[in-house]
């Protein structure tokens, strides 16, 4: 606010000074031109006419009302003696020493009630032609103009300062309210948003902060999902590892048994490592920092498809289904009253034209004939839910979920209640 007020003050003062200069030029310019013209005329008469003619010309010019009241004229020779004059020069004008340079000079002489505007016009061969007029009206006009301009500039500056203070106070209060709202937003309330503001700048700041809160909310949601996924995925191998270690410690009494337990624990540990790497990769992909190809790039899935295909086997399944469909021309039953139909008649379909395309009908019946759960054989052991190994080909080393012996007492109580 201080900087704005200082700049405004400099601009207002400069404008006020410029206006005062323009007004003074507008007041003094025409008056000085008229006085100089009369002084020049008398100087020429002095060079070409005798003194008597000069005196008559001075008397005539002095009697004229223009360009101002109280006109005083004096024409002097090179030695300083007065050749002709009109009116009595007041002491403050008569005592003035003519300029040293032989050029035209202007001056405002006197103050109070009788100020004069004086011009000295140099005469060829030496001497001066002096003309003075009263300028009380002009001085009063200039004084009123100065008061008006200074008062207006002061009022304008005060108004600008008040506006700057009001705008700054308003923006400061808006910022204080935004800060108060931000202080109430925590990690669990990132879904809240700042309300729009009346000030344009503060409203823009609130919009930017709302976008930032949206990004923070998305990041926190991603962190929560990653934490939940990690806890879910790590629970099973950690439980299996712990159970295997407890079984090894409780039941193993030979080096071979300990070795088998340690190898199993090592395998579970390696699985935990792979699982951790997969979770970190998934987190990086969701966060957009894993170098995932854009939509315009081609992704090679050969290795992934080959890995999936190696774990699949062809399955032959006999499909047998008897079905009966009845088709009638479209519109043959139009206009008939409501009729009761049997179960067979409920399968009636309608065709249009001269033939029926059976491809869709047969595909539908084949899909209906497929079993809901397709297995390679009746005694299929399936895939390991942990490592994905085909249990029909070999047995994996994944730990089987064992009961915690600490719950055995409760199990005995449940068995007694059931029997």
Describe the secondary structure blueprint for this structure.
Elements: H1 2-48, H2 51-63, E1 72-76, E2 82-86, H3 91-94, E3 105-109, E4 116-122, E5 128-134, H4 136-183, H5 200-251, H6 255-287, H7 302-310, E6 326-329, E7 348-351, H8 359-369, H9 408-418
Parallel strand pairs: 6-7
Antiparallel strand pairs: 1-2, 1-5, 3-4, 4-5
Helix pairs in contact: 1-2, 1-4, 5-6
Task: Output the keywords.
419 residues; alpha+beta; Beta-Lactamase; Helix Hairpins; five-stranded antiparallel beta sheet; two-stranded parallel ribbon; 7 strands; elongated
Helix content: 40-55%
How much of the sequence lies in strands comes to: 5-15%
Distance between the termini: 89 Å
> On the 0-100 scale, what is the average pLDDT?
79
Q: What is the second-level CATH architecture of one domain?
A: 2-Layer Sandwich
C-alpha-based Rg, rounded = 56 Å
> If helices are DSSP runs of H or I spanning 4 or more residues, what is the number of helices?
9
CATH topological fold name of one domain:
Beta-Lactamase
Q: How would you write the strand order of the largest sheet?
A: 2-1-5-4-3
The profile of the biggest β sheet is: 5 strands, antiparallel
Low-confidence stretches: none
Number of strands: 7
Structural class: alpha+beta
């Amino acid at each position: 606010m201080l900087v704005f007020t200082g700049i405004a003050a400099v601009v207002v003062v400069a404008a006020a000074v410029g206006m005062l200069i323009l007004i003074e030029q507008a007041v003094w310019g025409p008056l000085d031109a008229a006085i100089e013209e009369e002084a020049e005329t008398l100087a020429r008469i002095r060079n070409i006419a005798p003194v008597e003619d000069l005196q008559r010309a001075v008397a005539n010019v002095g009697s004229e009302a223009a360009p101002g009241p109280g006109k005083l004229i004096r024409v002097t020779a090179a030695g300083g003696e007065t050749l002709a004059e009109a009116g009595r020069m007041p002491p403050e004008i008569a005592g003035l020493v003519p300029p040293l340079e032989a050029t035209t000079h202007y001056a405002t002489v006197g103050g109070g009630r009788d100020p004069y505007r004086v011009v000295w016009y140099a005469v060829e061969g030496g001497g001066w032609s002096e003309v003075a007029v009263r300028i009380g009206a002009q001085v009063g006009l200039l004084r009123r103009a100065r008061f008006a301009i200074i008062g207006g500039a002061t009022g304008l500056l005060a108004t600008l300062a008040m506006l700057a203070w009001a705008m700054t106070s308003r923006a400061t209060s808006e910022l204080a309210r935004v800060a108060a709202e931000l202080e109430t937003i925590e990690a669990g309330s990132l879904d809240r948003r700042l309300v729009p503001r009346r000030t344009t700048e503060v409203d823009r700041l609130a919009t930017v902060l709302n976008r930032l809160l949206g990004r923070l909310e998305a990041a926190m949601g991603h962190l929560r999902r990653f934490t939940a996924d990690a806890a879910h995925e790590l629970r099973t191998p950690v439980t299996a590892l712990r159970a295997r270690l407890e079984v090894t410690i409780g039941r193993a009494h030979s080096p071979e048994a300990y070795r088998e337990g340690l190898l199993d624990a090592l395998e579970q540990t390696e699985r935990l490592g792979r699982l951790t790497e997969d979770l970190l990769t998934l987190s990086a992909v969701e966060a957009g920092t894993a170098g995932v190809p854009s939509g315009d790039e081609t992704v090679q899935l050969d290795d992934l498809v080959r890995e999936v295909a190696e774990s699949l086997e062809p399955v032959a399944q006999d499909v047998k289904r008897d079905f009966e469909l009845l088709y009638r021309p479209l519109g043959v039953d139009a206009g008939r009253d409501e009729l009761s139909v049997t179960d067979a008649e409920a399968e009636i379909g309608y065709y249009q034209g001269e033939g029926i395309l059976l491809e869709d009908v047969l595909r539908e019946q084949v899909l209906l004939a497929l079993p809901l759960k397709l297995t390679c054989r009746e005694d299929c052991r399936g895939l390991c839910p942990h490592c994905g190994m085909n249990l029909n080909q070999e047995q994996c080393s994944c730990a089987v979920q064992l009961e915690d012996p600490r719950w055995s007492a409760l199990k005995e109580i449940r068995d007694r209640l059931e029997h």
